[in-house]
């Protein structure tokens, strides 16, 4: 009896091993071709699952049946289900990034990302669409469309355009100008070389109207102008323009 039971268990385990196939593949970003580390690979209707390694590669055992559905998911990407067949020994699975439309967020008023309606100060925002609609040749030209800002420049060839907020235009350096939170005012007088700011690199402009010295220092007595640059979506990007 013991011999028969052992033979039955051995036969069952052998059958289980024979009925499994190893599937190998790679998961990547369909837009940038970058490998996705830590993506979840799961065989549908089973508890079989694994994750991709640092190069986006994976291998997983699947039941030896005609139709095996494999679901691939990763945070920030649309999930994808692929059908495994013997004709495709190595799966190339590209996931598409998913984008969620959010409200307007600002960082200038509190140094942390918050909804504009949760900020207890007066702040104006020129968003990406507004920036794209303005054919500005220099960064200070964007400010003309924002109320409450005084902008003056003697000519286009003079780099030091005079920009002031809240009536603090009598003395230079009382309006703080930043790029991604980094001040660009000159230390010897507080002026800004507006010709050195590339208007093509601006995605959003946040203007804090009123004293911001408690957060940004003495140069922010009149207010703060913060130019936000876009976050690259690909490993290598570029642009070409002429005027």
What labels describe this entry?
five-stranded mixed β-sheet, mainly beta, Ferric Hydroxamate Uptake Protein, Chain A, domain 1, four-stranded antiparallel β-sheet, 243 residues, elongated, 2 domains, 3 helices, Immunoglobulin-like
Description:
The structure is a single chain. The chain has 243 residues and is mainly beta. It folds into 2 domains: 18-95, Immunoglobulin-like (Sandwich); 105-228, Ferric Hydroxamate Uptake Protein, Chain A, domain 1 (Beta Complex), CATH 2.170.130.10. Helix content is 11%, strand content 31%. It is built from 3 helices and 16 strands. It has helices spanning 2-18, 128-133, 213-216, and strands at 20-29, 40-43, 49-51, 57-63, 68-73, 80-84, 90-95, 105-106, 114-115, 123-126, 149-152, 162-165, 175-179, 182-183, 204-209, 223-228. The strands form 5 sheets. A 5-stranded mixed β-sheet has the order 10-15-16-13-14. A hairpin with a 6-residue loop joins strand 5 and strand 6 (80-84). The radius of gyration is 29 Å and the shape is elongated. The termini are far apart.
């Amino acid at each position: 009896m013991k011999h028969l039971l052992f033979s039955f268990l051995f036969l069952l385990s052998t059958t289980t091993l024979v009925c499994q196939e190893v599937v190998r593949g790679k998961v990547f970003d369909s837009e940038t071709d970058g490998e996705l580390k830590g993506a979840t690979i799961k065989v549908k209707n089973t508890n079989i699952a694994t994750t991709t390694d640092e190069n986006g590669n994976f291998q997983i055992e699947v039941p030896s049946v005609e139709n095996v559905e494999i679901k691939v998911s990763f945070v920030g990407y649309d999930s994808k289900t692929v059908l495994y067949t013997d004709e495709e020994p190595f799966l190339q699975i590209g996931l598409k990034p998913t984008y969620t439309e959010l409200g307007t967020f600002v960082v200038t008023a509190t140094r942390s990302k918050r909804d504009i309606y949760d900020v207890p100060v007066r702040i104006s925002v020129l968003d990406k669409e507004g920036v794209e609609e303005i054919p500005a040749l220099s960064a200070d030209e964007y400010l003309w469309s924002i109320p409450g800002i005084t902008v003056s420049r003697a000519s286009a060839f003079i780099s030091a355009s005079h920009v002031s907020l809240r009536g603090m235009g009598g003395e230079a350096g009382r309006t703080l100008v930043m790029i991604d939170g980094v001040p660009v005012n000159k230390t010897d007088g507080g002026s800004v070389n507006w010709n050195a700011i590339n208007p093509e690199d601006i995605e959003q402009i946040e203007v804090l109207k009123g004293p911001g010295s408690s957060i940004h220092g003495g140069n922010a007595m009149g207010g703060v102008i913060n130019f936000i640059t876009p976050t690259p979506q690909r490993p290598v990007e570029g642009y070409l323009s002429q005027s």
